Structures are given as C-alpha cells and as structure tokens.
Amino acid sequence: QQRRLVGGVRRRVRDTRRATHQIVQPHADHHLAATRRELAAEGHRVYPADFTLPPLPDAQNAAIPIMQAARSLTLTDRQRNAANADDHRGTFAGARWTTAEMQLLRDAAKSNPKVFELLAAAAQRPKAHWSFVDDKDHTVLALFRPLANFLYAQAVVAHEDHRDELALVYLQQIAMISNRLTSRPELLAHLVAVAIAALPPAGIERFH
Fold first, then answer.
1. Are 119 and 176 in contact (CB under 8 A)?
2. Which of 80, 82, 88, 123 could tie 101 with a disulfide, CB 3.0–4.6 Å?
C-alpha cells in the first residue's frame, strides 16, 4: 500500500511538471524571441550567425600561433608547480618565489624557446579567428591560463634579474592573449580572458 501511495505521488508530480512545462514554455519562447528581436534592433549580436567572423588568412590569424604556443609549452611537474605557485598563494598578495623556484622557472624558459617565438609572431597579428579549433569540451581553452601563469612567472623572474624591459614584454604577451581570446563567442572564453587580463596590472603593481 505504501509503494502504491509513493508511486501515485510520483506520477502526480510528473504530470504536474509536464502540464506546467506545456503552459509556461510557449510564453517563455515568445518572450525570448521578443527579447532577441529588441536586442538585435539595438545592434547587439544575439544569434549564432552574428558571431561568424569573416575569413581570415592563416598568415594573419593570431589564434594559430597562440594555440601552438599553448600546446608546445612543456614543463616538468616541479616547473609547473613553480609557475602556478603565485596563483595559489594569491597573485595580488605579492608573495615571493623561493630561490629554488626562480631557478626552476629560468630552466623552464630555456627549455621552451618555441613558446616565446610563437607568441612574438602572434603579437604581429591583430586579429584572431578560432573557427579552426574544435573545442567543444574546452580542452584547448584550458591551456591558456597555465600559459598566462607561465608568462607572469617569467615576468617576475625577469624583474628580479633586473631585466624590466623583458618583463614588460611578457606582460604585454599576456594582455595580447586575453585580447585575442575575446574573439571567441563563448562566455567561458570571455571569463578566461578576464582572468588572464588581471595578471599584467598585478605584475606592474608588483614591480613598483
């Protein structure tokens, strides 16, 4: 009897949800369509087709060398931990790397010259088109914050080595990556771009 009672309650809940959906959904769809039309009339991009960028030759596409740089970054576990150390301690707290961590980061820079070459090439390309990337699961997008952390760490190392001009280059590369990521339409890409964009000002404040 108890099982029949529970089963009856579940059926009623299911039927109520179904009826509510049938009543509410048409109104929600109508409201969404009206809102989209209003936003489109104001010049906002609201439809998937609105985010389709015009063709961009590979030689002018900054997204290609940026992605190659992110994929080519090779760090040992210790180097990776060192590069991310400030992120864990609190980037804006001004925590200092240890002498051992600084040496790990110097070694990481020496073993990744291709990363810097690719980012220098990307900086010469003012536009980015990400349509060539199949990134439905965001595995490519997940590469950019570690790359930015690596560059931020290298900027700190350069500053500690009294090479502030080089430190500024690394911070500019971080800002460039953030800027180029904003051409991706996904909200998650913009959130990553915002997080990355916070690093250069933190570095400049730290150096002064």
1. yes
2. 82
Contacts with 184 (C-beta within 8 Å, 6 or more apart), sequence order: 130, 141, 190
How much is the pTM? 0.73
CB atoms within 10 A of CB 58: 11
pLDDT at 177 over 90: yes
pLDDT tens profile 47-99: 766 667 778 899 999 999 999 999 999 999 999 988 887 654 454 445 578 89
Among the listed residues 146, 127, 143, the one whose alpha carbon sits nearest the alpha carbon of residue 184: 127
CA distances from 147 to 19, 38, 162 (A): 50, 39, 23
Structural contact between residues 111 and 74, judged by C-beta atoms closer than 8 angstroms: yes
Supply 121's token pair.
């090439």
Given a contact cutoff of 8 angstroms between Cβ atoms, the answer to whether 145 and 86 are in contact is no
> What's the 3-state SS for 6-24?
HHHHHHHHHHHHHHHHHHH
